[in-house]
Amino acid sequence: MIRLPPASTANASLLPDLTPLLDVIFIVLVFFLLTAQVPLLQRPLDLPQDQRDSASMVTSDAERQLLELDAAGHWRLDARPLSLSGLPEALSSATHPALDLAIDRQAPLTAFLDLIVLLQEQQVDDIRLLMEPTPDAP
Description:
Number of helices: 4
Oligomer: single chain
């Protein structure tokens, strides 16, 4: 016959120890949280499909405007300081604005994405991204 310890002692509980089970549940919960699919915010971007489309958008370099974003997130249009909200008025003077974008590598990405959205809303189609070569690039 099995003898049970008296009910007054600490080891008298016949309930199983749930600590390992809670540990496993916590690990599984963390796994599911880390692997969950988070919906990405997307913005459609219309790019030229072939060289004929991009050739029709070519504007002479004298007619292009240089829009710069520095590492601090400040905008300049042709070396004049500019806020992003003032860009539509600055672009309204040209009938078909053509922009060269010079974005600093340390610039905030959200400022660049806000610019892309604004340019699509303003229907600016002729945009070139100016990039500096990196030493590790092939």
